[in-house]
Amino acid sequence: MKLIVGLGNPGSQYERTRHNVGFMCVDLFARKHGAGNFRLAHESFVADTLVGGEKVILLKPQTYMNLSGRAVASAMQFYKIVLTDILVVLDDIALPCGTIRIRPSGSAGGHNGLKDIQRAMTNFALEIGKTGEGYARLRVGIDAPGRVPQVDYVLQPFSSVQRPLIEGAVEKGAEAAGVWVTGGVTAAMNKFNAVEKAG
User: Fold this and answer.
1) Lowest-pLDDT range of 5-9, 42-46, 67-71, 193-197
2) Long-range contacts of 170-174, Cβ-Cβ distance < 8 Å, separation of 24 or more
3) pTM of the predicted model, to two decimals?
4) Is 42 a catalytic residue?
5) CA atoms of 33 and 3, how far apart (whole Å)
6) 52 CA to centre of own chain
7) How far is CA 51 from CA 100, 117, 161, in A?
8) Which of 19, 33, 42, 111 is flagged as catalytic?
9) Tens-digit pLDDT profile for residues 53-111
């Protein structure tokens, strides 16, 4: 069983903002793979589907970004999912808009959603002698904020120039998540990170 977590903020006012690109990827993945309707559980919208014979739980925490770890920990406990079977999809201001980057683990890199997940995961990780950073993450580039304060920039909608780029990135992100489910993180990295480098 796999858990794919899309990060974002709840509420219609945030739907198409830069910070909600994780939700956008999970929604597209759900449509592509015939997931049932999202239901409320674990302080999240939750859906599930089968991909290549593997059960996949889709999670969109409704706790606001900086409390995402609470929802992820609840789902992990309920479904008995280990760190290496989790993929977190999130926005990244360090990557150009339209690009994606997959990693098997790593630091939070200043992202409040990842910070809270890694804090919550530490208790699980200690049981197996690892850190709370040992889960895969799929970062979707949203461009650096420039002169706009970061807190404002991430909560704004994509610009007209960024919109077609982010649509392509969300498409690639959903596809990459599928490869991660069926082939693992290395297969996803080899296919999608190599394309980013070549571009």
Assistant:
1) 193-197
2) 170/21, 170/24, 170/25, 170/28, 170/140, 171/28, 172/100, 173/21, 173/25, 173/28, 173/89, 173/100, 173/138, 173/140, 174/25, 174/28, 174/29, 174/32
3) 0.93
4) no
5) 14
6) 20
7) 21, 25, 34
8) 19
9) 999 999 999 998 999 999 999 999 999 998 899 999 999 999 999 999 999 988 877 88
